[in-house]
């Protein structure tokens, strides 16, 4: 490739989970730190970073079609095209193949190596094509610039990677082993986020409740210890965390739900299936009864907790009766919200070569039934909250003029009308419930 002038503008396009959103923000900060500007909405950029997700099917195809679209839409009059970098989990898993198949891609960078982007850019400017999918011992977090810009609700990655090796999942391969960021650097970053105006922080990790570290007095802490320390930050109002694994739900973390008022009454605790046989085949390391017991204990300390989950239908060998057990679990526990997916065979994972792969139409039909059950469950949960007065963190303009959309403590979407601004924490009464949102009435806004 011929040398190219250094890029002046960039755009980072995120796919996948919140960890990717966080990584995308950090990459943006890194590029801004190099003197580049974010491309304005709708305008082309000199550098495009595709921050990809590999969790379900067609991940790679999506990347190729995205590249095609960029080349088509963003070719300049002088015939030049933007520098394209592929980052994220597809880069980690399929980086070499992407380099071989897509000559327009100049950089491939994995989720643990993106702090090296500036050096890669320098090489790319010389006309080289560069791949970095190392999982270096030095952590990227130490090499990244300070956080620059955050909204009222900010993400903070505290733990990365996964050692669980569920038989269907690519994450242990794309993100590497479980690593916890040190306590002190997390407190520093959280303080910085709060100083910049964050009033809600969501702690992120592929298995966030596996976080461990030594606090400032050298005492070993789990995620609950970190949460309690963050709760001391005066200007921080809300703390959340996701995603949790049932095996890492410690007594201390459960207790924190009853004791730390800033810890929001919301728990994303994926179960995947309601059948013990399927859970074992998935290598989930717990049974249905254990999960039910966990939720009983959480509800004992925090009766109003909003439970959220992830489900997979059509795992290899799943029978109708086993699927019915998943429906049964949803009915009996009640989910405030949930994500449900058709099983997608991922290259290199054990489940992809298991016997009993389920036909697509069976998966479709099961997914529909599960989603109907989850919708009923969400509606029922939302109805139990009608009549409550709570704080709503304003996140967006609503569809109608004068309307706002925000999040309740239970992570419900609440829309209301009245005096407010983005980032306000207003007091509202929940008036009317649907399965996906509630109508609220504004009672007070401390900010106005
Ligand atoms: N660490 C989290 C999940 C991360 S992936 C946990 O264990 O709970 C997010 C969700 O994607 C998973 O909970 C699962 O429901 C879904 N998922 C992962 N791999 C999948 C696959 N191969 N097919 C379908 N869904 C999958
Ligand atoms: Fe994937 Fe299982 Fe790890 Fe979650 S716990 S990231 S589903 S391997
Ligand atoms: Fe996707 Fe990687 Fe997140 S595969 S779900 S972006 S950890």
Please provide a written account of the structure:
The protein has 448 residues and is an alpha/beta fold. It folds into 3 domains: 9-132, Methylthiotransferase, N-terminal domain (Rossmann fold); 140-385, Alpha-Beta Horseshoe (pyruvate-formate lyase- activating enzyme), CATH 3.80.30.20; 389-447, OB fold (Dihydrolipoamide Acetyltransferase, E2P) (Beta Barrel), CATH 2.40.50. The chain contains 13 helices and 21 strands. It has helices at residues 18-33, 59-74, 88-101, 117-125, 140-143, 171-175, 183-195, 223-231, 251-259, 276-281, 288-301, 320-333, 360-385, and strands at 9-14, 37-38, 47-52, 83-87, 105-109, 130-132, 153-157, 159-160, 179-180, 200-204, 212-214, 220-222, 238-242, 266-268, 306-313, 337-342, 389-397, 403-407, 413-417, 425-433, 437-445. It has a 6-stranded parallel sheet with strand order 2-1-3-4-5-6, with helices on both faces. Strand 1 (9-14), helix 1 (18-33) and strand 2 form a beta-alpha-beta unit. Helix 9 packs parallel to helix 11 (288-301) and helix 12 (320-333) packs parallel to helix 13. The radius of gyration is 23 Å and the shape is globular. The model has no long low-confidence stretch (mean pLDDT 94). It binds S-adenosyl-L-homocysteine (SAH), iron/sulfur cluster and FE3-S4 cluster. Iron/sulfur cluster (SF4) is lined by residues 162, 164-166, 169, 171-172, 206-207, 245.
